Amino acid sequence: MAEQRTALVTGANRGLGQAVAAELSRRGLRVVPTARQAGGTNGAQVLDVTDAESVRRAAEQVGAVDVLICNAGVLLDGGTDPLSVSLDLVERTLAVNLLGGWRVAQIFVPGMISRGWGRVVFVSSGTGTFDGGLFTGAPGYSVSKTAVNGLTTMLAAHTKDTGVLVNAVNPGPTRTRMMPSARRSVRESADDIVHAATLSDDGPSGTLLRNRRPAPW
Prior knowledge:
It comes from Amycolatopsis coloradensis. The protein is 38% helix and 16% strand. The chain is an alpha/beta fold. The chain has one domain: Rossmann fold, CATH 3.40.50. An eight-stranded mixed β-sheet has the order 3-2-1-4-5-6-7-8, sandwiched between helices. A hairpin with a 2-residue loop joins strand 7 and strand 8. The radius of gyration is 16 Å and the shape is globular. The model has no long low-confidence stretch (mean pLDDT 93).
């Protein structure tokens, strides 16, 4: 019998992260949903991606992680523009969307490398792609996702031939608290993320995936 894999999902107390955690659990993984505060409907483990001590404590409690879903994110500057947006909002956005995922990866990915197997998925956005053009109506958010894309390719290069696959997923506009009027359901978008999290050993790494297919950066 194959050993059960452990998946950790950040920002899993609601919306997309919660749906991803539920689907991974349905597929037989041991799932650790995490959030800034404990509790919620899925009993989330406390993990604040902006707090190094919080991440370290969570790692001690959770143990080895095989699948890491960096989903925690904020959109704080919608309706602004690059020349008037508060840079405080931009800094706060980068602290969660970029540095948060980076911080969590630094804690959990080295163990994946040492064990010779792992899957890392960063939840990105079409607003941060050069192909589609960065969205100027949420400049801090858009730039943060561009940076996440860069981090994805860098970590993929660093983990090449280690058994660890690192990819980003653009789930598209998804009906969550962040985008309540979007057409796509969290279940549909979660399916794309779970696909990237359960890739076979010959799957891609360093790729932006959209609808399960490689998409341009």
